[in-house]
Amino acid sequence: MSVRSKDNIPFGENFSGVRLTLHSNREADIEGSRGIVEYCSDSIKINAGRFIIAFKGRNLRIKCMSESELIIEGFILSIEYIL
Questions:
Q1: How many angstroms separate the CA atoms of 53 and 38, rounded?
Q2: Predicted pLDDT at 17
Q3: Would you state the torsion angle of the CA atoms of residues 12, 74, 65, 18, taken in this order, to the nearest 10 degrees?
Q4: pLDDT confidence bin for 3, thresholds 50/70/90
Q5: Of 3.30.70.100, 2.60.40.2000, 3.40.640.10, 2.30.30.230, which CATH number belongs to 19-82?
């Protein structure tokens, strides 16, 4: 059984080479991102190719970043896919 979001996007699947892994609501690991669109302590937006992944929360920060991976740390309140 596949869980789907309100936009009919299945959770846990790999879209356009991007994989998002959550570790509770304290850390998100994004593989295959194409850069940072917005970065502040309560909002981080990541370019995921065909869409933007927007994280909202408190004390958000980029724990580490490489050419192929990005780790966001903090208290994540919501994640939104913006087409």
A1: 10
A2: 80
A3: 20
A4: very low
A5: 2.60.40.2000
* For the chain, domain boundaries: 19-82
Residue 75 pLDDT: 98
Cα–Cα distance, 29 to 27 (Å, whole number):
7
Question: Is there a contact between 46 and 37 (Cβ–Cβ < 8 Å)?
Answer: yes
Give the pTM.
0.78
Task: For residue 54, give the nearest of 19, 82, 12 by alpha carbon.
Answer: 82
43 DSSP β-pair partners: 40, 56
Token pair, residue 15, equals: 């879209």
Angstrom distance (rounded) from CA 83 to CA 78 = 16
Percent of the chain at pLDDT > 90 equals 65
